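Renewal narrative, Specific Aim 1. Our central claim is that a sequence can be written position by position from structural information alone. The example that follows is taken directly from our test logs and has not been curated for this report. It begins with the structure tokens describing the chain, in the order in which they were read.
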């Protein structure tokens, strides 16, 4: 699948990746500990979470994890098995996940978005004066910026425990770096096709 190729194309060494088309009934892949932690969500959201968890379980088994359950924390954050880190994202029909051993990488975040410009009213909320789009065209660049900030938030939350707004994150696509209001520096990468995929990580 083209998304799989895009994921392996931008993943740094040590990070493994996977994706799955979300199917009706995918909530059956939620393990008991996961089911208990996300019990209150609606049908479609649970199927998306099940699809993302199925991908995550496969990745964690490849990393040698015997119990690959990834329950949900209080802020929606996935809790990865000891010795591993990772991230999950979904759009309307695809779920993606990435994982690594924690001796290979400190933290990671991923996001997936349609390859379409962000609605105008959102642009002003997402962008800050310190952001640099580099070679990205402004229309699609606004969506890449949005997705990069979500990936940065997912990667920084396990380290800093802070809920961040878009204004708390500066992204520089010229240098490939992002910084949060907590002073956390992360590397950012993106792919534009067939979906916008963004990755943020600290080595
Ligand atoms: C995390 C968040 C940005 C995800 O956005 P989304 O577009 O709804 O959903 P995505 O498909 O991209 O990602 C969902 C996954 O993110 C992960 N996630 C959720 N909260 C997280 C957190 N605090 N830290 C790390 N990962 C988190 C989960 O794995 C979730 O999937 P699951 O529910 O199946 O486990 C959003 O849910 C959130 O918590 N926002 C509050 C803060 C915010 O919006 N700030 C502005 C952007 S920086």
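The sequence written for that structure reads:
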């Amino acid at each position: 699948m083209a998304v799989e190729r895009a994921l392996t194309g931008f993943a740094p060494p040590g990070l493994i990746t996977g994706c799955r088309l979300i199917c009706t009934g995918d909530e059956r892949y939620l393990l008991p500990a996961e089911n208990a932690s996300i019990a209150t969500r609606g049908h479609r959201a649970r199927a998306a979470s099940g699809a993302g968890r199925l991908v995550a379980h496969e990745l964690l088994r490849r990393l040698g994890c015997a119990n690959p359950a990834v329950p949900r924390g209080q802020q929606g954050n996935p809790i990865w098995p000891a010795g591993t880190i990772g991230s999950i994202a979904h759009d309307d029909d695809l779920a993606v996940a990435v994982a690594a051993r924690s001796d290979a990488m400190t933290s990671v975040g991923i996001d997936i978005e349609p390859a379409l410009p962000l609605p105008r009213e959102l642009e002003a909320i997402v962008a800050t004066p310190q952001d640099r789009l580099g070679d990205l065209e402004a229309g699609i660049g606004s969506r890449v910026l949005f997705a990069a900030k979500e990936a940065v938030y997912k990667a920084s939350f396990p380290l800093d425990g802070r809920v961040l707004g878009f204004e708390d994150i500066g992204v520089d696509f010229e240098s490939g770096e992002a910084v949060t209001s907590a002073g956390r520096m992360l590397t950012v990468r993106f792919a534009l096709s067939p979906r916008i995929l963004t990755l943020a990580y600290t080595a």
